[in-house]
Design brief:
Number of strands: 4
CATH architecture: Up-down Bundle
Distance between the termini: 83 Å
Radius of gyration: 22 Å
Strand order of the largest sheet: 1-2
CATH class: Mainly Alpha
Largest sheet: 2 strands, antiparallel
Strand content: under 5%
């Protein structure tokens, strides 16, 4: 092998020592999000639905990290946004739908297949709309419509909390489907709706823009770590309920203002 000498060696060395582009780090976390979604589908197909459910939660952790790293390195751009959306469709749309199908929706024949597909279908619409609106004007504090990771988190937490206690639904005429079907429909509608939901806390020069969101995030993570399945369903249910209540209050305020 002929090695560069003299000036040629000096020309090669800077190329080898060139730092990685800032966008590589958040893109790595985005791809790990996608990989977890793929692994979740594999695990569910093999009958390991609990492992598959927790892999969706892990995908959510990577999804939060990629956004944090993108803001930290100031590397957010069109490529990262599109890659993130493609990953989210798989991890928080296809994977939860596949979990729901094997959890019991397959017993409803073709209607069950449609219901299981709704998280992916509505999630894709939600993400496409978000990408378009972000290029025009983005609210720093709120999402328009429920974020697809929250929808996936609610589905997963419901499964983890109730999968081994089906007898709790014996008093219902249609068993667990009497709760599961309306929940899937409601979550799908909320994704494509316009109800505002809180964003994760943002920081400016290391200082949180909204301390309340930081406190809420820390409390939620602590509850999930301590109480696991129970903490998951409580945290996601509270987030969704808060969004609905605040959305109703804003709608009522705007309606009364228009009436005046």
């Amino acid at each position: 092998m002929i090695r560069p000498i003299g000036r040629n060696r000096d020309r090669v060395r800077p190329r080898l020592n060139r730092p990685l582009p800032p966008g590589v780090v958040p893109s790595f976390f985005t791809l790990m999000n996608l990989f977890c979604g793929f692994l979740s589908i594999v695990q569910v197909s093999q009958g390991n639905m609990v492992y598959g459910a927790w892999l969706i939660i892990l995908a959510g952790v990577f999804d939060a990290l990629d956004g944090f790293m993108a803001r930290l390195t100031s590397s957010s751009g069109s490529f990262g946004m599109e890659l993130d959306s493609l990953s989210d469709v798989v991890s928080f749309g296809v994977a939860p739908g596949f979990l729901l199908y094997h959890f019991g929706l397959n017993q409803l024949a073709f209607p069950g297949t449609i219901l299981a597909a709704l998280p992916a279908l509505c999630g894709a619409i939600r993400l496409a709309r978000f990408n378009v609106e972000t290029k025009v004007e983005e609210s720093p504090l709120y999402f328009r419509g429920m974020p697809i990771p929250v929808q996936a988190g609610m589905i997963v937490s419901f499964f983890l909390f109730f999968h081994d206690v089906p007898e709790w639904f014996d008093g219902f005429k249609y068993g667990i489907f009497q709760i599961l079907v309306p929940m899937v429909l409601a979550l799908s509608i909320l994704m494509v709706g316009s109800v505002p939901f809180d964003k994760l806390p943002r920081f400016k020069k290391g200082v949180p823009v909204d301390r309340y969101r930081v406190y809420w995030s820390v409390i939620s993570i602590t509850i999930i770590i301590v109480f696991r399945e129970t903490g998951l369903i409580l945290a996601f249910a509270f987030y969704i309920l808060k969004g609905l209540v605040m959305g109703f209050l804003r709608f009522r305020r705007d309606y009364l203002s228009a009436s005046d």
